[in-house]
Each structure stands twice: as structure tokens, then as C-alpha cells.
Automatic annotation (TrEMBL):
It comes from the Bacteria. NCBIfam families: mazG (TIGR00444), PRK09562.1 (NF007113). It comes from Plastorhodobacter daqingensis. This is Nucleoside triphosphate pyrophosphohydrolase. Keywords: Hydrolase. GO terms for molecular function: nucleoside triphosphate diphosphatase activity. Residues 36-109, 175-234 form the NTP pyrophosphohydrolase MazG-like domain. Its EC number is 3.6.1.9. The keyword Hydrolase applies.
């Protein structure tokens, strides 16, 4: 027997919670949804978060509404599985978040002075988070930096934690010197070492590049995403130019594609000037 949607609550959030409970119902739910667990759903949660960021980057507000709904569904999904396992539920998740936000904003919900700069408030936020980590018995400076973060994002978070206790270069000049050093080591590894050593040296170079981004107040994930977009846009212009002559990139030469790439680059710069 199927579930009649008319029996579900009318209010949007209770209705969504009821829909998820129905999908996971062992007797009448969806076989695919019933089979899922936290680990199998986690990749979808990450994917939906990126799709939210993509809609914001494109300033596509109708799409953002839909992507936020998809991300909310992921929270509801995990909440339902948590409730089934007796771990937590949607209400306990919301209650914990409410308590955290109130505790981390004493200048809004308490007696702390609100007359501070944004930088001062960030420092206060980090101090409160550090106290929370201490209370949760995290001992090391780097404890609690999630393993599942994208590698560049995790690198920046690790570096920020280390910088709080003074383990940091004083300015970007020293980071640039380190980049030159790591580049030389990568070249040496390429010429004389095996694949594992080359990978290690490449990783070291990426890690220092993330550190340079932090010193320059650049989000490396955003910077690389925009570089990807630029590459896609310009290569599309190369393909279009070749298509106008009835050819594909595979039917062209590197020299010709380089020339078309440079033309696309000049056209972009002219349009932006």
C-alpha cells in the first residue's frame, strides 16, 4: 500500500520531515532510500553544498532556491537516519545549533560589547571555538580539522590553526621563497626520483601555494574554480572558432589552437576594459 500525500502535514518543514520518514519506512518506503546510510549519503551532501556555491557564483537566484532545498534535504536525510539509530534527530540538531549560535554571539545575545570591528569579532569567535575544542578534550592544535574537507580548504584550515600559535611566516615574501624552493625540489624529483617522491614534492608545493593564498587573503578553492571557468570559457572559444571552419580540436594543431586561445584572451580583455 502506498502513502497518500494528503495524510502528510501541510507546513513545509514538518511535511519534508514526514516525506523523508516515509521514504525510509521499511514496509512502504523507497528501496533505494532504505538501503542508504551515513557513508553512502555523505558524497551527495558534499555535492549539494558545491551546487549551492555554484548557483551563488553564477548569481542564479532561482537555481539557488532549488539548490538550498536539495541541501536541506541532505540534512533531513541524515537527521532521519540519526533518529532511526537513536543518535539524534532534526530537533536535537536544531537545538544544538541554536545553543551554539547564542554562545558564539555574546555581543548579540549577551552582555559583551558590540562596538567592535569585524576582525575583532572574528577573533572573539575563534577564541570561543578554541574554548569549545578544549571542553571537548581536543588536545592538539590541529585536532578537529575535518578529514573530509577538500584538500585545499583543509590545508588553509590547518595553516590557520598553526598560525594562531605562532607557527607561520611573517609575510608573503617568505612564502614566495618557499614556493621557489619547493619548485626546485619538484624539478629534481621529476628528473631523478620515482612517482611517489614526485607526488610528495607536488603535494608540498600545493600546500605552500595554499599558504600563499592565505597570506594574500585569497580563497584557493574559489580562485581555482574561477580559473577552471576561465579555461572552459576560452577553450570553448577555440572550439567555436574551429567549428566555423568545419573542424574540431583533434583536427587542428597545437600552434593553431594556441593562436585561437590568445585571440580569445585578447577578446575577453577588450570586452572587460
Amino acid at each position: 500500500m502506498t502513502i497518500d500525500p494528503a495524510t502528510l502535514p501541510d507546513a513545509p518543514l514538518p511535511r519534508l520531515l514526514a516525506i523523508m520518514a516515509a521514504l525510509r519506512d521499511p514496509a512502504r518506503g523507497c528501496p533505494w532510500d532504505i538501503e542508504q546510510d551515513f557513508a553512502s549519503i555523505a558524497p551527495y551532501t558534499i555535492e549539494e553544498a558545491y551546487e549551492v556555491a555554484d548557483a551563488i557564483e553564477r548569481r542564479d537566484w532561482p537555481a539557488l532556491e532549488g539548490e538550498l532545498g536539495d541541501l536541506l534535504l541532505q540534512v533531513v536525510y541524515h537527521a532521519q537516519m540519526g533518529a532511526e539509530a537513536g543518535l539524534f534527530d532534526f530537533d536535537s540538531i536544531a537545538a544544538a545549533t541554536n545553543a551554539k549560535m547564542i554562545a558564539r554571539h555574546p555581543h548579540v545575545f549577551g552582555t559583551a560589547n558590540r562596538d567592535k570591528s569585524a576582525a575583532d569579532q572574528v577573533a572573539d569567535w575563534e577564541a570561543i571555538k578554541a574554548a569549545e575544542r578544549a571542553a571537548s578534550q581536543e588536545k592538539g592544535v590541529l585536532d578537529g580539522v575535518a578529514l573530509g574537507l577538500p584538500a585545499l580548504m583543509r590545508a588553509v584550515k590547518l595553516q590557520r590553526r598553526a598560525a594562531r600559535v605562532g607557527f607561520d611566516w611573517p609575510d608573503a615574501a617568505q612564502v614566495l621563497d618557499k614556493i621557489a624552493e619547493e619548485t626546485r625540489e619538484l624539478v629534481e624529483a621529476r628528473d631523478s626520483l620515482g612517482p611517489e617522491a614526485r607526488e610528495e614534492e607536488f603535494g608540498d608545493l600545493l600546500f605552500v601555494m595554499a599558504n600563499l593564498a592565505r597570506h594574500l587573503d585569497i580563497d584557493p578553492e574559489v580562485a581555482l574554480r574561477r580559473a577552471n571557468d576561465k579555461f572552459t570559457r576560452r577553450f570553448g572559444a577555440v572550439e567555436s572558432a574551429l567549428a566555423a571552419t568545419g573542424r574540431t580540436p583533434a583536427q587542428s594543431t597545437l600552434s593553431e589552437m594556441d593562436s585561437l586561445w590568445d585571440a580569445a584572451k585578447r577578446a575577453e580583455k577588450k570586452a572587460g576594459s
